[in-house]
UniProtKB/TrEMBL annotation:
This is Methyltransferase domain-containing protein. It comes from the Bacteria. Keywords: Methyltransferase, Transferase. SUPFAM superfamilies: S-adenosyl-L-methionine-dependent methyltransferases, Winged helix' DNA-binding domain. Gene3D superfamilies: Vaccinia Virus protein VP39, Winged helix-like DNA-binding domain superfamily/Winged helix DNA-binding domain. One of its GO terms (biological process) is methylation. InterPro entries: Methyltranfer_dom (IPR025714), SAM-binding_MTase (IPR053173), SAM-dependent_MTases_sf (IPR029063), WH-like_DNA-bd_sf (IPR036388), WH_DNA-bd_sf (IPR036390), WHD_Rv2258c (IPR048711). It comes from Halomonas korlensis. GO terms for molecular function: methyltransferase activity. The keyword Transferase applies. Residues 175-287 form the Methyltransferase domain. Pfam families: Methyltransf_31, WHD_Rv2258c.
Length: 360
């Protein structure tokens, strides 16, 4: 019979210490990666011959001393290579494909969450002690980062993979239907659809003045007259939604941080025409903590929940559902909202999200 030998307490402590030290290093790497992304240093380095720190700083329009110290961290972190004799640095092509727009996914985008959420740590600690939540106003860059996230998970496959999950939907959009995106953020998905399907009309609702202002400006600049955006609190959408007004409703990563997600889902059901479709993208997870142990981003997503998604809901006196509400709870909420037919999909490019196709 096979025997399983548990680690001794001393060995377990040693292994855990090594894990924590590694985590500290990797956290530092994420902070430096976010800086490299935001300053454009990765883009400048990608595909270039070796550069010294001054040449790199000049090309990027940055201060050399800061660039030199950043390069040190990137070399130690195994991201950037260096020739110490020549004093030059370069970004391997295999790394550039994951840290710039040269590849299928720019993972440097996600590194920004570490510093962004760390900036509200004092507020979150206060909430641990006093309750309540941290309001959206404390996250001035969140919609910008989420728009970049959406630009990699939603926009590239919107027409080829996401919308076709509902058979016949592309043809209906080409013929002309009414579409609503709830919690639309900066509305990039709507803007893309409005351009692709001029016969259809599109509406976007979001609580953020900043996000809606950005979307409205982009629509004006693009000359799109078939899309409108409105600042709207959706916590009472179950009562205020216009019955049967829309043929398609979408939410992209937009349910779990709502103040009252049940009300929003009931309102979406109310707003759909009898033959309407509700397309949902939301986090792939279980509603049970122990079943998320093997989730490739589970710990990070719980950190996002504590420091943003859960707390912004609680700040509005809401449910505080949290990022990791999970598929089981999502299905229960959708059934409670009145959806009779719900199909769940995962897309090959996006291990982080589930896609639900719901019909009244």
């Amino acid at each position: 019979m096979c025997q399983v030998h548990a680690l001794t307490p001393a060995a377990d402590a040693e292994a855990f210490e090594a894990r924590l030290v590694n985590a500290l290093n990797e956290s530092g790497l994420m902070l430096l990666t976010a800086i490299g992304h935001r300053t454009g240093l990765f883009e400048v380095l990608a595909g270039q011959p070796p550069l010294d720190s001054q040449a790199l700083a000049t090309a990027a329009g940055l201060d050399e001393r800061y660039v030199r110290e950043w390069l040190g961290g990137m070399v130690v972190g195994g991201v950037i290579e260096t020739d110490p004799e020549a004093g030059t640095y370069w970004l391997p092509e295999s790394h550039a494909e994951l840290l710039t727009d040269r590849g299928e996914a720019n993972l440097a985008v996600y590194a920004q969450f570490v510093s962004l959420l760390g900036s509200v740590e004092d507020d979150v600690v206060r909430c641990f002690r006093e309750g309540g939540g941290v309001p959206y106003s404390r996250y001035p860059r969140f919609h910008e980062v989420m728009a970049s996230d959406s630009g990699q998970t939603v926009l590239p496959v919107l027409f080829d993979a996401i919308l076709p999950l509902a058979p016949g939907l592309i043809q209906r959009l080409e013929n002309g239907i009414c579409v609503l995106d709830c919690a639309c953020g900066r509305g990039r998905a709507l803007l893309l659809m409005a351009e692709r399907f001029p016969a259809s009309r599109f509406v976007g609702y979001d609580l953020s003045d900043e996000a809606i202002g950005w979307a409205q400006a982009k629509a004006r600049d693009a000359g799109l007259d078939n899309v409108t955006f409105e600042v709207r609190d959706l916590s009472d959408f179950d009562a205020t939604a216009t019955p049967g007004a829309f043929d398609l409703v979408t939410t992209f990563d937009g349910i779990h941080d709502q103040a009252r997600p049940r009300n929003l889902l009931k309102g979406i059901h109310r707003s759909l025409a009898p033959d309407g479709v509700y397309l949902v993208q939301d986090i792939h997870a279980s509603s049970h903590h122990h079943l998320d142990r093997d989730h490739p981003l589970g710990t990070m997503l719980y950190a996002v929940s504590v420091s943003h998604c859960m707390t912004v809901s609680l700040a509005q006196g809401g449910e505080g559902l949290g990022t990791m509400w999970g598929r089981e709870r999502a299905l229960a909420y959708l059934r409670e909202a009145g959806f009779k037919d719900v199909q769940v999909y995962q897309l090959e490019h996006d291990f982080q999200n589930d896609y639900f196709v719901c019909r009244p």
